[in-house]
Design a protein that fits this description.
The structure holds two protein chains of two kinds. By secondary structure, chain A is an all-alpha fold. Helix content of chain A is 42%, strand content 0%. The longest helix of chain A has 14 residues. The two termini of chain A are 25 Å apart. By secondary structure, chain B is of the alpha/beta class. In chain B, 39% of the residues lie in helices and 14% in strands. Chain B contains 24 helices and 17 strands. The longest helix of chain B has 20 residues. The chains are: A mainly alpha, B alpha/beta.
């Protein structure tokens, strides 16, 4: 990630870098290899599903916005 | 946020033509200008159009730059990325057209393609599981985890998916047999042992979208009750193996592979087995033997792998492209999936389009499209406006179809009826300068070399057939050879142990069926009209057409062509090695293929 990207993430995530879907958006998200969540895949794109949080939603959106080639790229 | 995404083809074909060097220069140019952070550069999967690589597709503009080399990059960066003007000279220009195609979707090569299997190739970073998930990935698995095995099998059956590796056996039925086979341990095997000359469909799918294969295998595992699988991939596909390994690690980290997947209690272990490249290991029982560490040779069936496969456990083997279709079926639903294709051949087929067409590359077309549409619309027609002669479909196990089959729909049944097979997806177009006898000899020499030798009909029969074909191409053929070829072919088809032997005579049979006149010309007239079989033709220059431009003399390596400038030239047949360089160079079409010793006919 370049400098602009890092600044963008800092703003969005309040300092917590969430670069990949596997990174927990907050303490509410418990999905790991050892403690799997059945909703994980849908949650990556449409989440968070287990709690309400605009901030957590934006974190997911930021991951998608970074790589989406066009408006049809992400399939919800 | 990035201003632009630069998707550089990072598949083996473009890497071989220099896409890595292009990328390095691109990185440096952007860095030197201090704008690197505004651009995302991805070594993506194959966008298909190998003929014009290396390729960069710029998003969101969808500008398609092609035939690039490192020297072109500074100009593109300056003019397009800094000043916002597309660099037209690096865009695609169809042959004989003055108009460039500015955008991806305007290029005729893509116009009749439907991207199911290649939906992500060239659009995602194949090394990112996140991007696969964004594109709908692993949602089919999530759905399958909530379904009963029988229901998954039924969905695949309803979708009408047939095996993309060769024979086109209904995949759902194969899954049903494996599901019903007794046993607590079962295996899923992905056949990535792509061996047909010129075929690279499986390699491109693995390189461009490896998670699709993992997801397809996971769903198949759920359907038949398997907790372990193998991908058998030839070792000469190092990039495919590297990306697959990376994808497996990511899927494990994300809890999508391994123990208790997504909390469902479903466990799945996926292994990679690298093959040494023997063609016969693409045959399912030979492949299984190779995984077990034995010599890769086929064994008689029954029992079929569905009953007794890997280490004698029930095993479901499907090809790479077949597995790549599975997530789409489960995500869209069988009915939606089956909207593409014909009644008995659903979905799309990926072909490696090669030979004498203008646009070679990887193409995905809906089942039912005609051969003519593939050759002329997607392939851009025959090079140099020469006449179409035939198309070889299905690789060495397939058949040659002539011009009057151009309107044949490409589906399993139509191709089989015409004497060819769908095969794994090799498609080679041929022009008037292709000798059909020599072509049959070439394919038979391939299968003969690759015959494992276990069964006599294949080992000895193909050798005898090859000897006859060699005799015919050398001018030593006899008319009775044609009957002998047919008899041998029939015996080999009926009695060979595996599919390799059973289909090996197909190129000979179809060329005999559609081009017997060429065989007869070789035998009775000692003449090869295509100028391939060197004993059976000579070159001569037509004095009426030759303008004495001397272009031919410059390419003749043995100085066999003489003549004054602007005067008709002459070929010394004693010196001529019949390499054909002069034919390719002559713009007047003045160099003719003639019968041996008939030069006077051309001289008039």
């Amino acid at each position: 990630m370049g400098v602009n990207g890092a600044v963008f993430y800092f703003i969005i995530c309040g300092g917590e870098t969430v670069e990949r879907f596997i990174d927990p958006c907050c303490s509410e998200c418990t999905h790991t290899q050892e403690t799997p969540c059945s909703q994980f895949v849908d949650c990556c794109v449409n989440g968070p599903l287990c709690h309400e949080s605009e901030e957590c939603k934006q974190k997911r959106k930021a991951i998608m916005d970074r790589v989406a080639l066009d408006s049809k790229f992400v399939i919800h | 946020m990035f201003e632009k995404h630069l998707m550089v083809c990072g598949a083996t074909g473009c890497l071989a033509s220099g896409s890595k060097d292009v990328t390095e220069v691109l990185e440096k140019e952007l860095s030197d200008r201090g704008i690197r952070d505004k651009f995302r550069i991805v070594m993506a999967g194959c966008p298909g159009f190998c003929e014009v690589g290396p390729i960069i597709v710029v998003y969101p503009d969808e500008v398609f730059y092609c035939r690039l080399d490192p020297e072109n990059i500074a100009e593109i960066v300056e003019q397009h990325f800094v000043n916002g003007e597309i660099v037209e000279k690096h865009l695609f220009k169809p042959p004989k057209s003055k108009e460039v195609k500015r955008f991806y979707d305007e290029i005729p090569f893509y116009s009749k393609q439907v991207f199911n299997v290649l939906r992500n190739s060239g659009r995602v970073n194949p090394e990112s599981i996140d991007e696969y998930i964004m594109r709908g990935g692993y949602r089919a698995l999530t759905r399958a985890l909530d379904m009963k095995s029988e229901d998954i099998v039924e969905e695949v059956k309803t979708a009408g998916l047939r095996g993309r590796g060769g024979a086109g056996f209904p995949s759902g039925l194969k899954w049903k047999f494996t599901l019903q086979a007794p046993g607590t341990k079962k295996y899923i095997v992905c056949n990535a042992d792509e061996g047909d000359p010129g075929a690279f469909m499986d390699r491109s799918i693995l390189e461009g979208d490896p998670h699709a294969i993992i997801e397809g295998m996971l769903i198949a595992g759920l359907a038949i009750g398997s907790d372990e699988g193998y991908v058998y991939c030839r070792a000469e596909y190092p990039l495919a193996i590297q990306r697959l390994k990376m994808a497996i690690e990511q899927a494990e980290e994300y809890g999508l592979l391994g123990e208790n997947i997504l909390g469902s209690g479903y466990n799945y272990k996926l292994n990679i087995k690298e093959g040494a490249g023997a063609f016969v290991c693409g045959e399912e029982t030979a492949l299984l033997a190779s995984i077990e560490g034995k010599r890769g040779v086929p064994r008689p069936r029954p029992p079929f792998p569905a009953q007794k496969g890997l280490w004698d456990y029930p095993t479901c083997i499907n090809n790479v492209e077949t597995f790549a279709n599975v997530p789409l079926i489960l995500r869209l639903g069988a009915e939606e999936y089956a909207k593409v294709g014909t009644e008995n051949s659903k979905g799309t087929k990926v072909f490696a389009l090669a030979g004498k067409v203008n646009n070679t590359g990887l193409v995905e077309v809906p089942m039912g499209i005609t051969i003519k549409e593939i050759v002329y619309d997607v392939g851009g027609g025959i090079q140099k406006d020469r006449a179409f002669k035939a198309v070889q479909i299905g690789g060495p196990s397939g058949g040659c179809l002539p011009e009057d089959k151009l309107d044949l729909p490409v589906d399993y049944d139509s191709l089989t009826q015409a004497g060819a097979i769908m095969g794994s997806g090799g498609m080679i177009a041929m022009d008037e300068f292709t000798c059909m006898v020599d072509l049959a000899r070439y394919f038979l020499s391939f299968t003969q070399n690759e015959s494992c030798g276990k069964c006599t009909p294949c080992r000895e029969g193909t050798k005898r057939m090859l000897e006859i074909l060699e005799r015919i191409t050398e001018g030593e053929g006899k008319l009775e050879d044609l009957d002998t070829l047919r008899d041998l072919a029939s015996s080999i088809k009926d009695s060979s142990l595996c599919g390799l032997g059973q289909t090996a005579p197909n190129p000979v049979l179809t060329t005999l069926r559609y081009f017997e006149h060429e065989y007869r010309e070789h035998i009775e007239e000692k003449y090869c009209r295509s100028g391939i079989c060197k004993e059976l033709f000579e070159y001569a220059i037509d004095p009426e057409s030759c303008n004495g431009c001397r272009a031919c003399t410059k390419v003749c390596a043995v100085d066999a062509i003489s003549g004054e400038k602007k005067e008709p030239h002459k070929i010394d047949v004693e010196l001529c090695t019949k390499c054909g360089s002069c034919v390719d160079r002559c713009r007047q079409d003045a160099i003719k293929i003639i019968r041996v010793g008939s030069e006077a006919d051309v001289q008039g």
